[in-house]
Specification:
Elements (H helix, E strand, L loop, with lengths): L2 E6 L4 H11 L7 E8 L2 E8 L2 H5 L11 E7 L14 E2 L5 E9 L2 H10 L10 H15 L2 H9 L4 E9 L5 E7 L4 E4 L4 E4 L11 E4 L5 E5 L2 E4 L12 E2 L15 H7 L1 H9 L3 E2 L4 E2 L8 H5 L3 E6 L1 H18 L3 E5 H4 L10 E7 L5 H12 L3 E6 L5 H5 L2 E4 L12 H20 L5 H22 L2 H8 L7 E6 L4 H15 L2 E6 L16 E6 L5 H13 L3 E7 L11 E5 L8 H18 L18
Parallel strand pairs: 17-18, 17-19, 19-20, 20-21, 22-23, 22-24, 24-25, 25-26
Antiparallel strand pairs: 1-4, 1-10, 2-3, 2-4, 5-6, 6-7, 7-8, 8-12, 9-10, 9-11, 11-14, 12-13, 15-16
Length: 611
């Protein structure tokens, strides 16, 4: 959600800023802009639309500038317009700022500033902060001091980068609730909201701490934050290759990421499966067998696709470990007074590790004394730093807004946690543990088998481009898969879709079924198979158009469905890792057939860092 890039160095800043913005396009945005420090002035350009349109604007003499900031905006306060696009300036036009987040008390601040004679040109909350900094700059004459003082007046979330025409080759950045990372180079430094904008220039990065303020120049990065360590002592090395954020010949990032799932799943369990003891070792959890035996209750909190993974985790963890599990929307959990007693463990799940609601839920759980563990993808992210322990899913960069490989990797990690807990608590025998471990190890190869049938699903997808509604049904551990399949379709094809537990169809949704209603049913050969067959017959009796995801070799089901997509057999608890793959492909190919922008669906952002 929104993207920030800032550069101070010796090379032309504009090329680096635009390159960074292109790397951040996947986050979702509606307008873009930049501010360049040139001689003793600022060169500012903005547009409504894509980064390519911004790049087409003439920067004039600013092309020679070696410092600047840039931004892609996802509208919150005020519609997409030139006036609302970032950067925003102070009344003198000599200070420019880009901002991710929301200033919650901007209305009262704006009224106060207007009373002092300030004139606002946009509808944004951001402009308030710019005006505050401008006034402080007049008093102090120092950008760092001005930003530091202005931030004491604001309440909310921010990741900001600020430049002034009066302090060449200097950039000030700060974060609170919205991520920023600084890339450390040789005579040059880059700040961005995502490491993807940095890795083309340096692999050495520092993730800013909550409440940290930094001054960035060609000489280095100076911190004025809560972490007393020197910036270089906190430096980490990004170990993924630039090719991981390229399409590698695929037409869309989403399709590339769907097809990369065999490898991302192997990465999730690599080095963690114990084929001797039939268990999993997740060192990042820092849990002894005694700790595992002492768990009385698990709460999993997440948002969106991660919440669907958490729902699957509930089925898996309860069946393997016999520990009661509650799954909470982080956005709801944070606004009530949850009961967290002794022996309660909280897992927070987020691909980015920066999801605002999930971070707030984590802080609440910690305040109530729960042991909190993160399940995240991005190394060094806020959740990774603010949990006492946790597990990286190792899915690699995920660029497509609609999550695919991160979802299956999250489910894989939850399965490994379930196996470890089950063995430690004596709920799973050695023989059962070895069988499950072996099934886990076979999953990537079985996913490859499904991906080999992508062409069949592509042909099938054309059958549904007409649809305005779609129903997804599942039972047991595959009910969350129905939810996830429906979410993927609505996210990228804009077809209204709903997922339901199959038995709940009779409690309302069955009224929608007619000969135009496509119904996707997950009907793996598991413990709920006989019951879901009854539900399929109920849909058939009402002339619904039935697509079934079924286990290979199931000939019986073909007499009830117009279309069948087969997946290999696997242990019941692991079926979601296979049954979701055809639904990801179906959503992708339907969206492509409808001419939708798959990687950048309208109104959506990859990382939701504000409420």
């Amino acid at each position: 959600m929104c993207g920030i890039v800032g550069y101070v160095g010796t090379r032309p800043a504009l090329d680096i800023l635009l390159c960074g913005l292109r790397r951040l396009e996947y986050r979702g945005y509606d307008s873009a802009g930049y501010a360049l420090q040139y001689n003793d002035s600022l060169v500012i350009r903005k547009c409504v639309g894509r980064v390519s349109e911004l790049a087409a604007l003439d920067p004039g003499e600013g092309r020679a500038a070696t410092a600047g900031i840039a931004h892609t905006r996802w509208a919150t306060h005020g519609e997409p317009s030139i006036e609302n696009a970032h950067p925003h300036t102070d009344s003198s036009g000599r200070i420019a700022l880009v901002h991710n987040g929301i200033i919650e008390n901007y209305k009262s601040l704006k009224m106060r500033l207007e009373a002092l004679g300030e004139v606002f040109e946009s509808e944004t909350d951001t402009e308030v902060l710019t005006k505050l900094i401008g006034r402080e700059m007049k008093a102090t004459g120092d950008l760092l001091s001005a930003v530091k003082k202005a931030l004491t007046s604001v309440r909310g979330a921010y990741g900001i980068a600020v430049v002034s025409a009066d302090q060449p080759s200097t950039l000030v950045a700060a974060r609170y609730g919205s991520p920023l990372v600084v890339g450390i180079g040789d005579g040059e430094n880059i700040v961005a909201s995502d490491v993807a904008a940095i890795v083309a220039h340096t692999r050495d990065v520092v993730y800013l701490e909550e409440g940290e303020l930094v001054e960035i120049t060609t000489r280095g990065v100076h911190s004025h934050g809560s972490d007393p360590r020197m910036i270089r002592d906190r430096m980490t090395h990004v170990d993924w290759d630039l090719s991981e954020i390229e399409k590698d010949g695929y037409p869309h990032y989403m399709l590339k990421e769907i097809h990369s799932q065999p490898e991302s799943l192997r990465n999730a369990f690599r080095g963690r499966l114990d084929m001797t003891e039939g268990t999993a070792h997740l060192g990042g959890l820092n849990m002894t067998p005694e700790d595992m035996q002492g768990i009385r209750r698990i709460i999993i909190t997440a948002c969106g696709t991660s919440w669907h993974a958490a729902l699957i985790g509930k089925y898996v963890l309860e069946s393997m470990s016999r520990i009661p599990v509650d799954v909470e929307y982080a956005s709801e959990f944070r606004y009530r007074d949850p009961v967290i007693g002794e022996g309660t463990v909280v897992f927070v799940i987020s691909q980015s590790g920066e999801t605002a609601d999930t971070l707030a839920a984590l802080k609440l759980a910690r305040e109530k004394g729960a042991a909190c563990y993160g399940i995240v993808n991005v190394v060094g992210s806020t959740i990774a730093r603010e949990t006492s322990a946790g597990v990286y899913i190792h899915a690699g960069p995920e660029i497509g807004v609609a999550s695919t490989k991160a979802f299956t990797s999250q489910v894989m990690i939850l399965s490994l946690i379930g196996l470890a807990l089950g063995r430690a608590r004596g709920c799973i025998s050695l023989a059962e543990g070895l069988s499950l471990a072996n099934s886990i190890r076979e999953v990537p190869d079985k996913v490859e088998t499904i991906l080999g049938r992508a062409g069949e699903i592509q042909s099938l997808a054309r059958e549904f481009t007409y649809a305005s509604n779609f129903l997804y049904l599942g039972r047991g551990v595959n009910y969350p898969v129905a939810l996830e399949g429906a979410l993927k379709l609505k996210e990228i094809s804009y077809i209204h879709a709903e997922g339901y537990p199959a038995a709940e169809m009779k409690h309302g949704p069955i009224a929608l079924i007619d000969d135009l209603m496509p119904v996707a049913v997950i009907a793996a050969r598991d413990a709920a198979y006989d019951k879901i067959m009854s539900n399929i017959q109920e849909v058939k009796a009402r002339r619904g158009r039935i697509l079934v995801v079924a286990t290979e070799g199931d000939t019986e089901i073909r007499s009830y469905a117009q279309w069948v997509i087969e997946v290999p057999a696997v242990a019941d608890q692991l079926t979601p890792l296979l049954t979701v793959i055809p639904l990801q492909l179906l959503a992708y190919y339907v969206a492509v057939a409808r001419g939708c922008d798959v990687d950048k669906p309208r109104n959506l952002a990859k990382s939701v860092t504000v409420e």
